[in-house]
Structures are given as structure tokens and as C-alpha cells.
Design goal:
Organism: Candidatus Magasanikbacteria bacterium RIFCSPHIGHO2_02_FULL_47_14
CATH architecture: 2-Layer Sandwich
Family: Belongs to the acylphosphatase family.
Enzyme class: hydrolase
GO molecular function: acylphosphatase activity
Number of strands: 5
Strand content: 35-45%
EC number: 3.6.1.7
Number of domains: 1
Number of helices: 2
């Protein structure tokens, strides 16, 4: 099991990015959250199977139809158990 933290930069707030990310994470059976940051970026924290996390990462490079992703910072960790019960929007 893996833990992935992403910071997504670009036009990612006010364009349904978090909602679309939650929909994708739920479909992939991932847990964690997506939240807006004061600097205009979005943080996504997700836990689950590495292949599912790679699919979520690929999705985040595109995001919602109105989003324009400029860059993504990513940090991976191996974990023994999940810290979250579901995927939420904060």
C-alpha cells in the first residue's frame, strides 16, 4: 500500500478539480482528500494500491475540463495501513 501527496499548480481552483478528483479516486477505491490551498494550488492526498495511485496521478495531469494544470509536485511513501476511511473534499 502507498501514500501519495500531490500539489497541483495552475488553474485548478473554481473549475471543479477537487470534485472530479474525488469522483476518480472513488472509482479507483482510493482514500484521502483534496483541498484548496491559499496560493491557488490544490493538494491531493491519496492512499491505496500503487497502480490505482498512478491512474489518479495521470488524471491529475489533466484534471477537470476547465482546469489547466501547469505542474505537479509528488511525494510517495510506502505505508502499512490506511489513515483515511474514504476520499473527501476539504
Amino acid at each position: 500500500m502507498h501514500h501519495l501527496t500531490l500539489t497541483i499548480h495552475g488553474k485548478v481552483q473554481g473549475v471543479w478539480f477537487r470534485a472530479q478528483t474525488k469522483k476518480k479516486a472513488d472509482a479507483l477505491r482510493l482514500v484521502g482528500y483534496a483541498k484548496n490551498n491559499p496560493d491557488g494550488s490544490v493538494t491531493v492526498v491519496a492512499e491505496g494500491d500503487k497502480d490505482a495511485l498512478l491512474h489518479l496521478l495521470a488524471f491529475c495531469h489533466i484534471g477537470s475540463p476547465a482546469a489547466h494544470v501547469e505542474s505537479i509536485e509528488e511525494h510517495w511513501e510506502k505505508i502499512k495501513e490506511r489513515q483515511y476511511k474514504d476520499f473527501e473534499i476539504k
